[in-house]
Amino acid sequence: MRYCLILLFCCCQIYGLQAQSRTDTLLRNLISREASPALKHILQYPDSFRYQLIYTQIDRDAHNQPHFKHYYLDVDADKYFNPASTVKLPVALLALEKLKELKAEGITGNTPMLTDSSWSGQVTVHTDSTAENGLPSIYHYIKRIFLISDNDAYNRLYEFVGQQTIHEKLWDKGYKRARIVRRFMPLSEEENRHTNAIRFEDNGKSIYAQPPAYSTLAFDYSKKITMGTAYMDKNDKLVPLPMDFTRQNNLPLEDLQQLLQSVLFPASVPASRRFNITEDDYRFLYRYMSQYPSETTYPKYDTTEYFDSYTKFFLFKGAGHNIPPYMRVFNKTGWSYGFLTDAAYIVDFKHNVEFMLTGTIYVNRDGILNDDKYEYEEDGYPFFKEIGKIIYGYELQRQRAHNPDLSQFRIDYTK
Question: Which of 101, 136, 234, 378 allows an S-S link to 128, with CB 3.0 to 4.6 Å?
Answer without folding.
Answer: 136
